[in-house]
């Protein structure tokens, strides 16, 4: 494929000389339209070059722009003076181009004469509208678009193009012209200073700021795609080809990790031609029908709601994320403990390498550096009979990565190790049955009592927060397959460095708001109102008495409150009623001396299950140590006093870790959750609803919905992405 050969007057010569991406897309246009677009593009290029010619005094450049304003007006009233304006005049008249977008282009480029910083995105949007969206508004006339909706498409696509240009040219614009287009308000959100723009490598805050620009540009590309009027699609071939080129450029910037501070990241000529070739092939295919950009309420700011809001905003929708509490995170949030000033999680959570969707979302916001990553499974156990031993995987491919760990795990016999390594093949031949418990399934596939005691029961309690006598075998096998028998990196363990809520905020807020959305915390929802036959959500009513209309609602709250919002006749409401709460208990212990020598310690044959060393999260300058003790699937202990629980936990630790006998607890915080997770009915198939309900514009997310995963952070995030995909 070769670029179009442009011949003729001033406009064609300027366009040919520019070597622009835009000119490449003209190849698909009929000759007359190609000539018109070349002339119009030459006008855009000329007025932009006037502004960027810094060797010319300011007043002369302003005079040249004024001359162009006069010529644009003259096109409609008489005869323009400049040769290029004379070439543009018949194009304007033939394609009925109104003067407003041409004048907006001049206003936009003139902003580059006087403005080098932008306080907010609203300020930047005005600039982008002039230099890009207005270009699109002229172009759709030349393309002979027939619908009014084409204007909305042109505006959104122009924003996407210009935001991509701005991201590509961060270093070039600053070095050559002293301009920084990225909004200063967003610098402050990520702690970025002007000096950071002059560094060759992005700081962590700068990396987040650049990722935000990518997210916003992608949002507008998706929004534009959803706005394409079907009747006008045949007229928009050039715009669609150019979209392919620009989207490839945007994704290349992402793949190269936003290293734009050294200079522009560009597509090679071959990459451009490849993008055009793929684009021309796509033009021959029938385009899928997509929902128009919608205004969506996501109710619930836990990980499920955050994932749904993130995905929907990225896909071109406007989202209001509504959370009743003053912080995001839901049942996996963090807060500042009053007495010590320590940021602690409401309950101890870990992420694993197999949490692919969660890690994807955290990475998209640039927040992986807020996780402490341990490259492989490394769990220390203590028991009354064997003392201290360790289960540590190796970097070998599965299942060999687990073999070394099992060999060193003294709690196991050789037979125990053999049946554990054979579990995947046995599971393939004898998969869990519907409603089968973990205990029954493990017995059926020949797992020994030693393997169950030392590995499967502790793992089941940790992953499902349920005893093997009650836990669902299908859920257990799914999480076991991913975590222990997947790739070696899937067994990696991640702990948050500064609280689970800080994995989300303030980045998620900024990302949602960058995509025409809002994050509204401390905003409890009272009810949803429906039409007479409960097939459509009409309004969202808030507890303060106000209400708002949305095109759709994603309900991302736990199953118990969800039943208050879902119509009683809906299958999801009926399935939610069959779920039982799974309680969990956690105690944060501040101590004067170490309690356990390892990061994570599992306790066998004990009412205490896990102890995590969280000393690294103490505020700087703090003395002492911090630990998080966990008792999963707790029963009567949940009603005990804090003192009783601390005494019980300390007694168990000191019984099995003798070196902790002189350690004193200086402070403690108890966390009790009676519905931390869900359990099914023993012996009954575990039935959970999917994201779609009987209400046409109501969708569900939450770790209790059908994800094939238990109630984990990953299950919640997967459910949020599923809800976004179901909406479309």
Description:
- By secondary structure, the chain is α/β, with parallel strands linked by helices.
- It is 45% helix and 14% strand.
- It contains 26 helices and 20 strands.
- Strands 8-7-16-17-18-15-19 form a 7-stranded mixed β-sheet, with helices on both faces. A 5-stranded parallel β-sheet has the order 10-2-1-14-20.
- The relative contact order is 0.09.
- This is Amine oxidase domain-containing protein.
- Residues 304-726 form the Amine oxidase domain.
In short:
This protein has 728 residues and is α/β, with parallel strands linked by helices.
Furnish the topology, listing elements before pairings.
Blueprint: H1 10-18, H2 21-24, H3 31-52, H4 58-77, H5 83-94, H6 99-114, H7 121-142, H8 149-168, H9 170-177, H10 184-189, H11 204-227, H12 237-255, H13 269-283, E1 295-299, H14 303-314, E2 318-322, E3 334-336, E4 343-345, E5 351-352, H15 356-364, E6 371-374, E7 378-383, E8 387-392, H16 400-407, H17 414-421, H18 423-429, H19 438-444, H20 449-464, H21 473-483, E9 493-496, H22 507-514, E10 518-520, E11 525-530, E12 537-542, E13 547-548, E14 552-555, H23 559-565, H24 571-576, E15 580-591, E16 600-603, E17 610-613, E18 625-632, H25 642-656, E19 665-679, E20 698-700, H26 713-727
Parallel strand pairs: 1-2, 1-14, 2-10, 7-16, 14-20
Antiparallel strand pairs: 3-4, 5-9, 6-9, 7-8, 11-12, 12-13, 15-18, 15-19, 16-17, 17-18
Helix pairs in contact: 1-3, 3-5, 3-6, 3-7, 4-5, 4-6, 6-7, 7-8, 8-11, 8-12, 11-12, 11-22, 12-13, 14-26, 20-21
């Amino acid at each position: 494929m070769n670029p179009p050969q442009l011949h003729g007057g001033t406009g064609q010569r300027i366009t040919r000389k520019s070597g622009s991406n835009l000119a490449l897309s003209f190849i698909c246009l009929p000759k007359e339209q190609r000539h018109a677009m070349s002339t119009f593009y030459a006008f855009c290029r000329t007025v932009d070059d006037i502004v960027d010619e810094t060797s010319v005094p300011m007043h002369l450049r302003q005079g040249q722009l004024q001359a162009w304003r006069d010529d644009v007006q003259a096109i409609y009233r008489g005869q323009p003076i400049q040769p290029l304006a004379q070439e543009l005049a018949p194009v304007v008249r033939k394609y009925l181009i109104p003067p407003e977008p041409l004048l907006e282009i001049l206003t936009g480029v003139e902003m580059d004469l006087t403005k080098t910083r932008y306080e907010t995105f609203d300020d930047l949007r005005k600039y982008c509208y002039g230099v890009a969206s207005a270009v699109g508004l002229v172009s759709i006339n030349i393309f002979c678009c027939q619908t009014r909706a084409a204007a909305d498409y042109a505006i959104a696509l122009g924003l996407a193009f210009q935001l991509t240009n701005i991201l590509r040219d961060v270093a070039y614009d600053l070095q050559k012209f002293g301009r920084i287009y990225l909004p200063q308000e967003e610098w402050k959100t990520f702690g970025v200073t002007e000096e950071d723009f002059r560094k060759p490598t992005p700081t962590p805050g700068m990396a987040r700021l650049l990722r935000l620009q990518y997210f916003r540009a992608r949002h507008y590309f998706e929004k534009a795609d959803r706005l394409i009027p079907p009747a006008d699609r045949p007229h928009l071939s050039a715009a669609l080809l150019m979209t392919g080129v620009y989207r490839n450029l945007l994704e290349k910037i992402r793949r190269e990790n936003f290293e734009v501070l050294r200079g522009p990241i560009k597509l090679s000529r071959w990459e451009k031609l490849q993008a055009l070739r793929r684009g021309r092939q796509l033009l021959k295919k029938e385009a899928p029908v997509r929902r128009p950009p919608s205004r969506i309420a996501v109710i619930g700011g836990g990980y499920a709601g955050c994932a749904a809001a993130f995905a929907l905003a990225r896909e071109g929708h406007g989202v209001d994320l509504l959370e009743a509490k003053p912080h995001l995170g839901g049942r996996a949030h963090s807060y500042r403990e009053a007495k010590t000033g320590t940021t602690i999680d409401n309950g101890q959570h870990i992420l694993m390498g197999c949490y692919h969707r969660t890690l994807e979302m955290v990475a998209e916001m640039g927040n992986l550096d807020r996780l402490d990553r341990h490259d492989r499974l490394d769990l220390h156990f203590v028991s009354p009979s064997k003392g201290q031993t360790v289960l540590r995987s190796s970097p070998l491919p599965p299942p060999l990565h687990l073999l070394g760990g099992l060999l060193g795990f003294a709690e196991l016999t050789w037979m125990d190790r053999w049946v554990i390594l054979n579990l995947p093949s046995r599971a393939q031949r004898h998969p869990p049955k519907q409603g089968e418990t973990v205990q029954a399934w493990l017995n059926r596939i020949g797992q020994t009592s030693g393997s169950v005691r030392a590995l499967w029961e502790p793992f089941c309690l940790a992953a499902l927060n349920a005893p093997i006598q009650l836990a669902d075998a299908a859920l257990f096998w799914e999480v076991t397959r991913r975590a222990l028998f997947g790739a070696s990196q899937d067994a990696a363990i991640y702990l948050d460095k500064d609280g689970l809520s800080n994995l989300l905020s303030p980045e998620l807020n900024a990302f949602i708001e960058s995509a025409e959305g809002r994050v509204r915390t401390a905003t409890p929802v009272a009810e949803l109102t429906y039409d007479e036959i409960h097939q459509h959500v009409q309004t969202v009513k808030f507890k303060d008495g106000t209400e708002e209309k949305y095109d759709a609602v994603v309900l991302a709250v736990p199953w118990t409150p969800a039943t208050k919002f879902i119509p009683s006749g809906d299958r999801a409401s009926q399935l939610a009623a069959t779920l039982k709460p799974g309680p969990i208990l956690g105690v944060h212990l501040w101590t004067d001396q170490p309690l356990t020598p390892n990061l994570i310690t599992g306790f066998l044959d004990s009412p205490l299950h896990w102890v995590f060393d969280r000393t690294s999260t103490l505020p700087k300058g703090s003395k002492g140590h911090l630990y998080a003790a966990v008792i999963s699937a707790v029963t009567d202990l949940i009603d005990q006093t804090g003192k009783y629980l601390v005494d019980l936990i300390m007694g168990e630790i000191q019984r099995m870790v003798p070196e902790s006998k002189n350690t004193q607890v200086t402070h403690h915080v108890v966390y009790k959750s009676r519905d931390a997770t869900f359990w099914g009915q023993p012996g009954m198939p575990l039935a959970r609803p999917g994201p779609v309900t009987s209400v046409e514009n109501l969708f569900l997310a939450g770790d209790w919905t059908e994800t094939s995963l238990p109630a984990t952070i990953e299950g919640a995030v997967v459910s949020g992405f599923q809800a976004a995909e179901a909406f479309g």
